[in-house]
Design goal:
Elements lengths: L3 H11 L7 E6 L5 E7 L2 H6 L9 H9 L2 E6 L3 H15 L6 E2 L7 E4 L8 E4 L8 E3 L5 H14 L19 H4 L13 H15 L3 H17 L3 H20 L1 E2 L7 E9 L2 E10 L2 E11 L6 H13 L8 E3 L9 H11 L4 E3 L5 H39 L8 E10 L2 E11 L2 E2 L5 E4 L8 H18 L7 E5 L2 H13 L7 E4 L6 E2 L14 H32 L9 H11 L2 H5 L3 H5 L6 H15 L5
Parallel strand pairs: 9-12, 12-13, 14-18, 18-19
Antiparallel strand pairs: 1-2, 1-3, 4-11, 5-6, 5-7, 8-11, 9-10, 10-11, 14-15, 15-16, 15-17, 19-20
Helix pairs in contact: 4-11, 8-9, 12-15, 13-14
GO molecular function: DNA binding; excinuclease ABC activity
Subunit structure: Interacts with UvrB in an incision complex.
Function: The UvrABC repair system catalyzes the recognition and processing of DNA lesions. UvrC both incises the 5' and 3' sides of the lesion. The N-terminal half is responsible for the 3' incision and the C-terminal half is responsible for the 5' incision.
Length: 614
């Protein structure tokens, strides 16, 4: 139960809220903002969070952590929507869905505020009269588009304040036909503006209209016998048509549409936008999301629609979304209309060609998310190995790590497990199980000595490569015995550490006191993964061995079960597993087994199932 004083303090604050629209900020005990929301009526919305019996999983999790409340009132719900986006970017609250890393995506800028505009890449959008296109989620894609524009359109590329008071000699771009040379003052502002208009239509996706206008201008130039100009226009038409031929036609009505798909995995997610312009699939944008652990598709898409479409420079006419994103989008659409002077339609197709495109977008989102997660893991593993080499003073990068653990149940059925990680990832072919030969009882240090001696002897005899690091699941005593085994084989040079469970401390051979490192560091996360995998692998094997041993005598230990009845039971169930899974009613069906004896057998089996190794 939440502390009554905390609830009372929050309830007193809520009394002052009234029915104003605005944003509310839930904070935890450390004063950190953990959730930002908006509401048409702050008081009633905030009060709804204080019910401990919430149906919504996210609200239940939030209720556990909420400690304090803050709010900002606004004049309208539309203002609250914009403020919500700003506050989420500022505080990065863990219960909100948000664009991962909140980095500034690049835009292409056409500097229309100048007499002779140029096109360049920027991450800052200014309200200065220039035209911006984006955002681009891939910097390479933005650069490729810029290079394409410079190849097709002879726009200037050198930063100059034009017109110049004194014309200068044009650069190499002019002589290569890639610039009209406004720096030498022989091109009018009107002629240059025509070129800029072509670029704007190209970036707006109006390529069909652009090609039609260029063809008309080419014919006009040819009629006037301006053959050089007609030739330049023809080249541009051919280059634009080459691009259009590579683009897939997905809409015969030639509309401008965005098709959105999402993929989620735990707290991470990815949204992909397939951009259709003039009926052709022009490209794909992919956005990483985080904060999805307690959020459904509707909330994820609501957050993305707000963060993305309130910051774009060109709106599509229609945005297609999966049916799971259906909800109340009125405030979002009203805000779009107010900001841009035009609106967009949200559609949720359940069948037909658009549904197929939604599936395609979702598949692209899955692939992008998988690629991002794998890249993140690979990066973390590389960082972890480098940190291990540095912190543990290892001679080489620990590309191969082995870890050993002992498992038994109160000294019985002792086994050892060895796991291998290569390049920071489990390498299952290197996993090993060991049944103890020299020990039967509680003697973990002695067993560790035995298994390390057996493992290293095998590597030497078979001339197999030695590990870069051996981790012992245990403290100083276990590590010391493992080091003894290595030294006896003249292999004391192999780096070896012990990882104690309680405090996650690291022991080094020959040193009495352990070392502590940041438990959240990549190095410690990798060591814990290795240690936990060794423990899991060993416990599973120990449990299997004990159950095999117990099953062997399960029927022998039950009173009133003779050879004939044992035979009947095994013949009826055909396997020992089916015997252990049998109900009392099923046991009664066996010849010679009555209700009383069936209950005895059942109770004995259930007591066996409760056996768990350490």
């Amino acid at each position: 139960m939440k502390d009554a004083l905390i609830l009372k303090t929050i309830q007193e604050k809520i009394k002052n809220l009234g029915s104003l629209p605005g944003c509310y900020l839930w904070k935890n005990q450390l004063g950190q903002v953990i959730y930002v929301g908006k509401a048409l009526k702050l008081q009633s919305r905030v009060r709804s969070y204080l019910n401990p019996n919430q149906k919504d999983r996210k609200t239940r999790a939030l209720y556990v952590e909420l400690y304090d409340l803050d709010w900002i009132a606004t004049r309208t719900e539309k203002e609250a929507l914009l403020l919500e986006a700003t506050l989420i970017k500022k505080y990065n609250p863990k219960f909100n869905v948000r664009l991962k890393d909140d980095k500034k995506y690049p835009f292409l800028c056409v500097s229309t505020s100048e007499d002779y505009p140029m096109v360049f890449l920027t991450r800052k959008v200014k309200d200065n009269g220039d035209r911006y296109f984006g955002p681009f989620t891939d910097v390479k894609a933005a650069r490729d588009t810029l290079e394409l524009i410079h190849r097709i359109f002879p726009v200037r590329k050198t930063k100059l304040k034009l017109p110049l008071s004194k014309p200068q000699r044009p650069c190499l771009n002019f002589h290569m036909g890639r610039c009209l040379g406004p720096c030498q003052g022989n091109i009018t502002k009107e002629t240059y503006s025509e070129l800029v208009d072509e670029i704007l239509r190209f970036l707006e996706g109006k390529k069909d209209r652009l090609v039609a206008d260029l063809k008309s201008a080419m014919l006009d130039a040819s009629t006037k016998m301006e053959y050089e100009r007609a030739g330049f226009l023809k080249q541009r038409i051919e280059k634009i048509n080459q691009i259009r031929e590579k683009q897939t036609v997905v809409s015969l009505d030639g509309g401008d549409e965005d098709i959105l798909g999402i993929s989620k995995r735990d707290d991470e997610g990815q949204i992909v936008i397939l951009e259709v312009r003039g009926g052709r699939l022009e490209g794909k944008k992919s956005f990483p999301l985080t904060g999805l652990s307690f959020s459904d598709d509707e909330e994820a898409f609501n957050s993305f629609l707000r963060d993305y479409y309130l910051n774009v420079t060109i709106l599509p006419s229609v945005v297609y979304l999966p049916t799971s994103a259906k909800g109340n989008h009125d405030v979002f659409l009203e805000t779009i209309l107010e900001k841009y002077g035009t609106s967009i339609k949200l559609k949720f197709p359940e069948m037909g060609p658009k549904k197929s495109l939604l599936r395609l977008a979702e598949k692209n989102a899955e692939l992008s998310l998988t690629e991002r997660i794998l890249a993140t893991k690979l990066r973390d593993q590389t960082v972890a190995m480098k940190e291990l080499q540095e912190k543990l003073n290892l001679p080489t990068l620990p590309r191969t790590i082995e870890c050993y653990d002992i498992s038994h149940f109160q000294g019985s059925s002792p086994v050892a497990s060895g796991v291998m990680f290569v390049e920071g990832k489990p390498y299952k072919s290197g996993y090993r199980h060991y049944k103890m030969r020299g020990y039967d009882g509680i003697n973990d240090p002695g067993m560790i000595h035995e298994v390390i001696a057996r493992r290293l002897s095998h590597l030497v005899n078979e001339e197999e490569p030695l590990p870069d690091l051996i981790v012992i699941d245990g403290g100083l005593t276990q590590l010391s015995r493992a080091a003894e085994a290595a030294n006896a084989l003249d292999l004391g040079h192999i780096p070896m550490v012990g990882l104690a469970k309680k405090r996650e401390e690291i022991y080094f051979p020959g040193e009495k006191h352990p070392y502590s490192f940041d438990i959240h560091s990549p190095m410690m996360r990798l060591l814990r993964n290795v240690r936990d995998e060794a423990h899991r692998f060993g416990v599973t094997f120990q449990r299997l061995q004990r159950k095999k041993k117990a099953l062997k005598s399960i029927l022998d230990d039950i009173p009133d079960i003779g050879a004939s009845r044992r035979k009947n039971i095994l013949m009826y169930f055909q396997s020992k597993k089916k015997v252990t899974d049998a109900t009392k009613e099923e046991l009664e069906k066996v010849q010679g087994i009555g209700p009383v004896l069936a209950e005895k057998i059942y109770n004995n089996i259930q007591s066996l199932k409760k056996i768990e190794p350490r």
